Amino acid sequence: MRTTPAAISICLAFLLGLVFRDIFSSSPQPTAPALTAETQPAAAAAAPPAAAAPAAAPARPLDRTPQQDSERIPVANSPSLGPAYAPVTIVEFSDYQCPFCRNVEFTLHRLREQYGDQLRIVWKNNPIAQLHPNAPGAAEAVAEAFAQGGNEKFWRLHELLFQHQDALDRPGLERFAQQVGLDMPRFRRAMDAHTHQAAVEADRALLARIGGRGTPNFYVNGRNFRGEQSFEILAGAIDAALARARAVQPPSRAYAQGVIDAFTAAANGERTEDPAAVYNVPIGNSPVLGPSTALITVVVFSDFQCPFCGRAEATLASLRTRYGNDIRFVWKNEPLAFHENARPAAQLAMEAFAQGGHARFWRAHDLLFQHSTALGRQELIGYGRELGLDAARVLTALNNNTHNDAINADHALAAQLGVSGTPAFYINGRRIVGARPEEAFVSLCDEVRRQAQETLRTAPGATRENLYERIIANGATSLAYIGGGAAPAP
After folding, report:
1. Where is pLDDT greater, at 52 or 207?
2. Whether the Cβ atoms of residue 356 and residue 394 lie closer than 8 Å to each other
3. E strands of 99-231, at which residues?
4. In the sheet that 223-226 helps form, which strands lie side by side, from edge to edge?
5. What gap in Å lies between CA 459 and CA 472, rounded to an integer?
6. Residues near 479 by beta carbon (within 8 Å), at least 6 away in sequence
7. d(CA 99, CA 444)
8. Which residue from 28, 154, 332, 445 could staple onto 410, CB 3.0 to 4.6 Å apart?
9. Averaged pLDDT score across all residues of the chain
10. Does residue 191 share a domain with residue 65?
């Protein structure tokens, strides 16, 4: 196959895009342009960069009539980037002191590059004062910037605040306000009198009224996505919104109608599982492999006779090699009813745990998966001997189902969480179902590890020993859907 210069350029662009994304993800400060008026695309956007997924091309030239506002999520008086006629509007409720809100700035920048004048981003304040004491003042500061200089001043100050999250006290806010050229006597009067506090509280009240919670929180033409979303998830939501918008007449009703349709779908029970939901999955007394100080906890619901579970074991072993002491695994039994030998195998594994603790359990775990097609009674008794277990106790466990209470408790937890098959994984509370490619696990592990490091850095009282419990404390206890359910990570 002939390699053209254009193909080489595309490949290089793709690789550079990944490099810059990774640099941003691991750095304590943004390394790519934030959302600023200076970086706003022209009305006719340039071709999207090769690193981004291809956008769905509009079926017709964009109608330049400004979008009608939505009564449910009004945006007319809020700071925005992108043309008023854009068919897709992302309304972002955010907090200037929230590390996850800062991280997602790079994703939003990429989306604007990708979609050009098809996309408008609208800012709403949702400072969480209990966690971020300087966030309310920062929100009032950008509101004053907007009052003095519209979108241009707002987005310049917005960028500075996210670049300097550790300096959002009053002196810092005044310094940044001066840098963007605000009228300082007027700025100080507004801050002293809390001139914009009511507007900030109105944004917070709006989020509560539409059922939102936490930051960052996004509404893509009314469809809700919570937490630090990936580029791929938000790009998929935008593509879907563009497809729906093409059916709306007149085109200027795309945003208002999209919000109506989104809330109607939610009211009718048309729910989509929330990919960013954090679930409360306790470790309890389950077998654990890895240190209690790990940044990443992977809870595995699995079945020793399930071929897909066996296939996933190689991926889990690779993750252990990749992350070392930063990862630990927790086993939960979920023997499926149509695997007749799965529950007896679980009995043997739990008997190994009872006799020899965590180390003996994981030896049994490895042995059972190595022989997942030979889990009959006599084979299990033989594996007990191979593991050096007390033979009489093994027989008692198999005959009397000694460990049914523990196995049933795991199954009840799985049912409560909405697990309907195996394997199912919860990575710092984030859910992956099925024997997915290793890349999917690595991507999520990298994300939650970065979030865990941010939590350790910013959350009072957070230690590596209590980190997992803090992360899942406010998590969902049943299947979480977009628009309601699980809380984002702290």
Report:
1. 207
2. no
3. 119-125, 217-220, 223-226
4. 80-81, 119-125, 88-94, 217-220, 223-226
5. 14
6. 273, 417, 418, 485
7. 17
8. 332
9. 87
10. yes
The count of other CB atoms within 10 Å of the CB of residue 409 is: 15
The rounded distance, in Å, linking the Cα atoms of 452 and 456 is 6
Burial class (CB in 10 A: 0-12, 13-18, 19+), 68: middle
What secondary structure letter does DSSP report for 57? P
Phi, psi angles (nearest 5°) of residue 300 = -115, 120
Q: How confident is the model at residue 435 (pLDDT cuts 50, 70, 90)?
A: confident
Token digits of residue 352: 């190994």
Does 479 reside within a domain? no
365 with 320, same domain: the answer is yes
- Tokens linked to 357: 């603790």
What Å distances lie between residue 195 and 25, 149, 168, 246, CA to CA?
36, 16, 18, 41
Q: Do residues 35 and 159 both lie within one domain?
A: yes
Contacts of 228 (CB under 8 A, 6+ apart): 100, 101, 103, 104, 216, 276, 447, 451, 488
Residues 320 and 435 in one domain: yes
CA 245 to chain CA centroid, Å, is 26
Whether 484 maps to a domain, the answer reads no
Number of domains observed in the structure of the chain: 2
Task: Assess contact for 301 and 334: CB atoms under 8 A.
Answer: yes
CA–CA distances in Å: residue 207 to residues 68, 87, 103, 381: 20, 22, 21, 58
Q: What are phi and psi of 113, to 5 degrees?
A: -65, -40
Pair of tokens at residue 111: 């989306």
In one letter, which amino acid is 246? R
Q: Is the pTM of this model over 0.85?
A: no
